[in-house]
Amino acid sequence: MADLFEYLAWRGDLDFSKSPLNPVDSLIFSQLSYMPFDGIVPAPDEKGSISIRDAAELFGEKLNNDSSKEKLTILFENDPELLGALAFSNRFRNCRLSGYVNIVDNDRLIQFSAICINTDEKFSFVVYRGTDRNIVGWKEDFNMSFDEAVPAQLEAVVYLEKMASRLKKHLYVVGHSKGGNLAVYAAACCRKRIQKRISDIYSFDSPGFQNNILTSKGFSLIKDKIKSFIPQASVVGMLFEHGCSQKIVKSTSTGLLQHELYSWEVTHNDLVYVEEITPGSRFVDKTVKEWIAGLNNEQREQFLNALYSILDDSEVKSLQDFETSWFKAAGRLIKTFGGIDEKKKQLIQKTFGDLFNIARRNFDTLINHKEK
Q1: Per-position DSSP letters for 271-338, written without gaps between them
Q2: In a structure prediction context, what are the per-residue pLDDT tens digits for the chain, which is 372 residues long?
Q3: In this structure, what DSSP letter does residue 134 have?
Q4: Of 29, 64, 59, which is closest to residue 41 (Cα–Cα)?
Q5: Kind of pairing, strands 50-51 and 170-176?
Q6: Mapping DSSP to helix (H, G, I), strand (E, B) and coil, where does residue 370 land?
Q7: Which fold has domain 4-277?
Q8: Which runs of E-coded beta strand occur in the chain?
Q9: Which of 50, 167, 239, 371 has the fewest CB atoms found within 10 Å of its own CB?
Q10: Any idea where the domains of the chain sit in the sequence?
């Protein structure tokens, strides 16, 4: 039942010349991208870089400073410990970090964050962060169901093309959750000379794409470089189509908690794989895809806009609003829903009603299948 920390105990003393890059390294870098490196790692328009060891030291100082600590948004409680373990290891402590960017803009409807990591003289990583706790990020994710490209995807292409000129020859483009989607999108849409430099693209439990991306020439050029992974009970990684095969990873958690990379099992140089997804994941996949297929792009947009107008009016801006006072936040949502115009209310009720009916139908089918 080994996790990322045990991997560091096994391989932390070996640099990349002694133990080559493997999928677990990409998994670790994807998790590292969630760290709040504001004011620590140079931005894309700034020169220079900082080692993981020095970044960990500066972060520790912020963490011990009461005024700075209040401003830190730690998305996963194990992240500071992971950063410390990386800083202590021979394998990772001298890796150089640069190009850190973190954009959350409600007006532009964008949540985008990325960082670059140089591992040695030959290889560099462009790492995209997944969705954080801001509601705007989740809205952007769902907008993928009807928009040809959301702002974060366009930003991901610009970022890759800008940073590629400063990085080592061989590129790895990676990410978890929405970050994996951005990694594939950026690789598919960037210039050919950059595509040729990409060694592999790692996508960890990430949503897929609409058909316009999967049938594009750019996607066909990088398709064979995509390494896509999902946990047994994947939900996020089952959304939309991926256009490539996916490896299924064993997780120590259950349900939606399997989305967290800390729950994924690893070996000394790879992930631990299983044969198939769980019945629950298969049920969600079939239900959601059937539900989305039953709505055209205009209907999807109208439904999501109506739903998020409730969130905006209720002043719920992040998942933290629910975590700190879920009763109060839920009360505001219910009150706001009662006050919206009748047309929006009927649209939301009907769309969720369709989802419930599809789920009930598929659940019965799943039960019959299990009985057989």
Answers
A1: B-B-SS--HHHHHHHHHHHHHHHTS-HHHHHHHHHHHHHHHHHHT--BHHHHHH-HHHHHHHHHHHHH
A2: 699 999 999 999 999 989 999 999 999 999 999 999 999 999 999 999 999 999 999 999 988 886 666 677 888 899 999 999 999 999 999 999 999 999 998 888 899 999 999 997 788 999 999 987 776 776 777 778 778 889 999 999 999 999 998 897 899 999 999 999 999 999 999 999 999 999 999 999 999 998 889 999 999 999 999 999 999 989 888 888 899 999 999 999 988 889 999 999 999 999 999 999 888 888 888 888 888 888 888 888 777 777 666 666 555 554 444 444 444 545 555 555 556 677 777 887 888 888 888 888 887 656 654 444
A3: B
A4: 59
A5: unpaired
A6: helix
A7: Rossmann fold (3.40.50)
A8: 50-51, 96-105, 110-118, 123-128, 170-176, 198-204, 226-231, 246-249
A9: 371
A10: 4-277, 285-371
Q: Which of 58, 73, 195, 223 is nearest to 126 (CA)?
A: 195
- What pTM, to 2 d.p., does this model score? 0.89
Identify the sign of the CA torsion 33, 37, 42, 45. Answer: positive
Assign residue 39 a region (left: φ > 0; alpha: ψ between -120 and 50; beta: otherwise). Answer: left
Q: In one letter, which amino acid is 192?
A: K
Tokens of 234: 């994947």
Fill in the DSSP letter of residue 177: T
